[in-house]
From TrEMBL:
The lineage of its organism: Bacteria, Pseudomonadati, Pseudomonadota, Alphaproteobacteria, Rhodobacterales. Residues 1-65 form the DUF2007 domain. This is DUF2007 domain-containing protein.
Length: 72
């Protein structure tokens, strides 16, 4: 799996996941349970992962919908 998106904004993750699923691209959200460690203040970013063979297609969906690919 490859990282598509990294953000502290849960609404961007939800929107991106919905767009990808609508296009038939499987995705998986990582670091969801980090809020237990941080106390729910949202300082640790969440990551959205996609399969290696779908990364280019997923990046195109993000660009077409003006979602910045917040990766290091």
């Amino acid at each position: 799996m490859k990282e598509l998106l990294r953000t502290t904004d849960p609404t961007i993750i939800a929107f991106a996941s919905a767009l990808l699923q609508g296009e038939g691209i499987d995705c998986f959200e990582m670091d969801v349970n980090m809020s237990v460690l941080e106390g729910g203040i949202g300082i640790f970013p969440r990551r959205l992962m996609v399969r290696d063979d779908m990364i280019e297609r997923a990046e195109r969906v993000m660009r077409d919908n003006e979602i910045p690919l917040g990766r290091p």
